Please model this.
Amino acid sequence: MKLIETIGYLKTIGNTEKLIASEGLSIELGLIDVYLKDKLDIESEVRFFDVDTIPNNLEIDIEGIHYVNLFPLVMMQEIIQDYSNLTTPKPSNTEIAKRLLEYRIKDA
Model:
């Protein structure tokens, strides 16, 4: 699933939990980091990792695939939820994804 496609799931904690369950992860949300395949881009594939099973690096290679850390899942979900709820008019998923990446690149 691409980053742009995950935004809708991460607007509420309930949908976030459903997404993680569908990914086959049965661990606490606080123990999941979100990585993007190859580069920070809204079209990049998202991968969720158990923080206890990967190195604590901004960039990792797993099974020959390069991933770039975006955010811990809990932090990402809170950012998306807050931004979605606090802005008028409601931002599109594309706008949220772009703002999320902008924040990650410039401020995080």
In short: Helices lie at 3-6, 13-22, 73-86, 93-106. DSSP finds four helices and four strands in the chain. The two ends are 23 Å apart (CA to CA).
